[in-house]
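Entries read sequence, tokenised fold; example below:

***
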Amino acid sequence: MSSTITTNSPGDTMGSWNVGQIRRLENGEVAFTKTLEMPIEGIDTKYVWHPTTIDFTDLELLDNLEDDRLLWFAKHPSFNKTVLVKINPFNSNTTTEFIENETRTYQLVDGLGIAPNFLGHVTYQGAVIGFILEFLEGAQKSDKDDEPARLEIIQKLHALDITHGTATHQNFLKVGENMFMIDFANAKFGERATHTRKLEDFERIRDFPDDWFAVISNEDSDLSPAVNKLFDSLTDDDDIYSESR
């Protein structure tokens, strides 16, 4: 984000900046030829709900999590152990929307045992650009035998009129007997958490290499036979499929 560099090349630049243009010079060296300070666009302030806010520059970033450019292991004096930080480092409008979706979801599921604990917001130049999560030590990805636990969690999410959008087994973590959901970037809320999107969530839960189900990408599409079969097996609980009113 903010940095100071010193070079002996043309385009030598020092000071505070967050956007830089890098070019190869005639002598073959690579250098910054232009830097500037651009305003940071954060999430909508109406979704800033947690009392804890921590400036990005005060975080000690340790390493990316599984090569995810947005998710980092980090340390901060406010926490007595390593935490997870998700940020929007490139000020992308799309990524800002993803961060906002996750922040909204974590507020709505707070204290319900659906997701890891939300520990605070990350700010930079006054804008909220990310959030901090509890790192679940000893967590493992769910496997095929965990389908009932995943189904229970998705039912709790749907009861709040939220759909996940990418509810594959990779986005569930288990710690002992407890199951948690992660990665709510594609969540939909209220009227947008439609009947079809709920069915898509159920379909993706069973998205294993040896048990693959097609993903519906169009709200007006006919349901696949696989989804209809899954729907039939779950209609005992009509509340799972109730729409927003």
Notes: Confidence is low (pLDDT under 50) at residues 1-14, 210-245. The CA atoms of residues 161 and 190 lie 5 Å apart. Residues 93-108 form the longest helix (16 residues).
